[in-house]
Write a structure and sequence with these properties.
heterodimer; A: 288 residues; mainly alpha; MetI-like fold; 2 domains; 13 helices; B: 273 residues; alpha/beta; Rossmann fold; six-stranded mixed sheet; three-stranded antiparallel sheet; 9 helices; 21% strand; binds adenosine-5'-diphosphate; binds magnesium ion
Amino acid sequence: MTSATGLATLVPSIAAEPPRTARFLRTAGRGLLASRLTPWLVPFALLALWAAASGTGRLSPQFLPPPWAIAEAAWSKILDGELAANIAVSFRRAISGFLVGGGIAFLLGLANGLSRLSERLTDTTVQMIRNIPNLSLIPLVILWLGIGEEAKLFLTALGVFFPVYVNTFHGVRTVDAGLVEMGRSYGMTRFELFRRVILPGALPSIFVGVRFALGVMWLTLIVAETIAASSGIGHMATEAREFLQVDVVVLAILIYAALGKVADTTVRLLERATLAWHPAFADPRTSK
Amino acid sequence: MTVKPADRDFDALFADPSTRARAARGVSIRLSGLTRRFGELEVLRGIDLDIAAGRFVAIVGRSGCGKSTLLRLLSGLDRPSGGELAFGAGEDDDVVPRLMFQEPRLLPWARVVDNVAVGLGRDRDAPDGRLRVASALAAVGLAEKAEAWPAVLSGGQKQRVALARALVSRPRFLALDEPLGALDALTRIGMQSLLERVWLAQGFTAVLVTHDVGEAIALADRVVMIEEGRVALDVAVDLPRPRRRGSAEAARLEAEILRHLVHEEPPDVGWVI
Ligand SMILES: Nc1ncnc2c1ncn2[C@@H]1O[C@H](COP(=O)(O)OP(=O)(O)O)[C@@H](O)[C@H]1O
Ligand SMILES: [Mg+2]
């Protein structure tokens, strides 16, 4: 290892003016990289900017209410229990749509990845349906299912289905053939081959599908709740719009952002737990 | 002389290295008129080869001459189009051939111990399984990497894990398809002597495909050259073990085999694998 002084004597121009600002920036950069708070820097800066703009009167409350007005709206909704009820309803819809659509997609993706026959039978059909924007089905779904829970479940599940299906299928198909041959040569049964080679090999791709699906899940649910619902965050926002309560509308949007973040973080944690072997997912704090 | 702990485990694991013990552990292999076609392409056109139990045979030949195809037949990954392949004197039921590939082919999502445990095959749940895995890892000098992920190992270390995986079931026949081809020269020499030690101690029958004639002569009892789907040359290597690199006799043999390999090639191309 070359010491800093050794380098300095080798390169006199650096030694001539040890730039304090440069050193400060370097230390600060390292600190930023290490800190857990760093990712929150930009959101907090935006919040501060928003508060400042509202406080000085540059931002009209009719256009965007100040942060404290949103907080007040949140507080009153928390107090009358409406907020918790609506969040619970939306969350339950999101999860059930995700489980139903993602579950079917995962199984079909596996089946089509593993079996040429299954692929020949169903893949073309799936690809055809995939090209229909799922939100364009809303009028038809309302005609069929009304605005009950089934309509939301159907739309969310359909939206979640495609990313999970496509990525599961791709993941299974791109598993290293050399590893599969190795497993066969060591006498693995078909089930062992699936559990120990194919599924773990497909997992990174499946996670890509899941994260994509979470985005589609919220999007579909928001739209469905805005158009056809009598409860949930989307409904709360629509109702507030009719009464010109901008603060509640903004609150609903913020809640969607928070729920999306929660879902994404959950998947990240799952990824880190199951893909610890993968250099790209290894926790830098625990790997040597 | 002191014995390193790794060497003691190694000896404890493997059999008595006498020639008799070797013949008992290894299995003889007989190929007669073995052929393999891929559609129009006739890759193996009738291979006749008798390999005595416990011997080390090296196979050389130009790229695409069918060496890997032959090893896949020998290790049961593929079926011949014609001819016969027989292990031992008829009691071929307990021969579980093992094949070592050019790439390590370790499961990236399994720790080193679990990768070696794959080699136990149907004995995976045997009570002494863990112990056998540990001994095999010690034998290749990687006991301290047992809990590591494959991603953090060097190329040579990965290939040693693959060797431990191939040996942990104590196979009677081991096929090796250019297992050292991708390693740097120094690592390769280390691996060659490891292979020789393991083979001497365990006594299995070994068939090694290599593009390095020097390596073939350093390791094998016999060097077989394949050309146009048939055995074109079969040379016994009668040098004492453990072998010294660069002896005059080895150099003479190497020159002879190389002369046959380069034979009939356009002079400006040379032989390339
Ligand atoms: N599964 C296969 N299908 C069609 N052709 C094959 C297959 N496996 C090998 N071959 C062909 O057989 C020939 C010999 O291949 P191989 O045994 O891999 O040669 P090498 O001696 O370099 O190991 C090559 O021409 C290769 O293209
Ligand atoms: Mg080959």
